Amino acid sequence: MEFLAPFARYLTDNRLKLVTAESCTAGLIASMLGDYEGSGAWLECGFVTYSPEAKHALLGVLPTTIRQHGLTSVQVAAEMAEGALKRSSNSDISLSNTGVAGPDPADDGTPAGTVCLAWSFRNGGMQTYTEMRRFSGDRNTVRKSAARYAIERALFYHHLSQQERGIP
């Protein structure tokens, strides 16, 4: 898990706390982060919300967002990330995902391997960035790839959020 070292060091050096909101990775992001020695200094908490009802009740994802855009959408991923950050008052960063790990496509036809991710940051306000990606492989390979991608991409978006706010 050497890929975690730069991320962990960055969070520690900048005294940042993290929350996760996961659907298709089912807590794998939080688990990967928790495996890293010293993660208690920056890993605040994690939400695992598979069902639309859990996404609404625990993270505040609007039922209308799910109806209009579907469960596997960047809009739902964004509301998950923002909801997690709002519900974790000590956190500065949230990572979220929702998608279809497979092996079969979703009922709405969304192909297996499709994952929507979001990163939200509290930098004097809420800033959220989203991506839709397609990962290949079996169910667990998709989940692991999506979890790792979410972690690796977080620093890029945190730097971007600071640049957009004029923070050095």
UniProtKB/TrEMBL annotation:
<dbReference type="InterPro" id="IPR036653">
    <property type="entry name" value="CinA-like_C"/>
</dbReference>
<dbReference type="Pfam" id="PF02464">
    <property type="entry name" value="CinA"/>
</dbReference>
<feature type="domain" description="CinA C-terminal">
    <location>
        <begin position="8"/>
        <end position="153"/>
    </location>
</feature>
<protein>
    <recommendedName>
        <fullName>CinA C-terminal domain-containing protein</fullName>
    </recommendedName>
</protein>
<dbReference type="InterPro" id="IPR008136">
    <property type="entry name" value="CinA_C"/>
</dbReference>
